[in-house]
Design a protein that fits this description.
Blueprint: H1 5-11, E1 13-23, H2 24-35, E2 39-43, E3 49-58, E4 61-62, E5 70-79, E6 84-99, E7 104-114, H3 119-140, E8 143-144, H4 146-161, E9 164-167, E10 170-186, E11 190-205
Antiparallel strand pairs: 1-11, 2-3, 3-5, 4-5, 5-6, 6-7, 7-8, 9-10, 10-11
Length: 211
């Protein structure tokens, strides 16, 4: 009796979750390229801009505060007339939110902690740095996965239409229905993302090699 291949493929549904880890080193490179050298400034009502500091370094690590996911130590050099060319370090704590419908990870909540000995520098800079960093990091840490996922799904489905040869005599046939970011978690050395994959398919064997 002839097998109905279409029926068998449609019944071979599977739903799996694949963990993906992104090292903080890779994320640090991204942040440094985007933010190191940026000038932290404030504009008054007349449109005059005052420069407060320049970003010298920024990194990312797991937060030691349980209410936040990440901590971003930021080193700046002051540019004000009162405190010039002093290096100041701030800790930017961030909690992230995954919008599963839009497939975006966004900055949800934050706190800036100034770690300096000079109280005047803290008070003069912290408010400006607070607002500036929030605006910048909200923009830079807005990871929109949807375009990348759609591109990968289309590419993979185009290949599956013509079969993917896993090895000689073994082919993969099927269709990828959905690919999404299901959740994320900040760990000690990496940011972990769970990818949920829904598809149907079959493994076709057309050549058997004897040992």
């Amino acid at each position: 009796m002839m097998m109905n291949t279409d029926r068998k493929i449609s019944e071979a549904d599977f739903d799996i979750t694949i963990p993906v880890k992104i090292g903080y080193d890779a994320l640090n490179e991204f942040l440094k390229q985007k933010l190191v050298g940026e000038i932290i400034s404030k504009e008054n009502e007349e449109g005059e801009k005052s420069n407060y500091a320049q970003i010298l370094d920024i990194t990312m690590e797991k937060s030691d505060l349980p209410e936040y996911d990440l901590c971003l130590p930021v080193t700046v050099q002051t540019l004000t007339s009162l405190f010039k060319n002093k290096q100041v370090k701030f800790l930017f704590y961030a909690s992230l939110h995954l919008d599963r419908e839009l497939q975006k990870i966004e900055l949800a909540n934050y706190e800036v902690d100034g770690r300096n000995n000079n109280w005047l520098i803290d008070q003069a800079l912290e408010t400006v740095v607070n607002k500036w960093l929030y605006a910048k990091l909200k923009e830079k840490m807005n990871f929109n996965f949807m375009p990348h996922l759609e591109e990968q799904m289309n590419s993979l489905n185009n290949k599956l239409e013509n079969k993917i040869e896993a090895k000689e005599g073994v082919n993969l046939i099927g269709f990828l229905e959905d690919l999404e970011v299901a959740q994320f978690m900040a760990e000690e050395n990496d940011l972990w993302i769970s990818m949920r994959l829904k598809a149907n398919g079959v493994v076709e064997i057309n050549k058997i090699k004897l040992p």
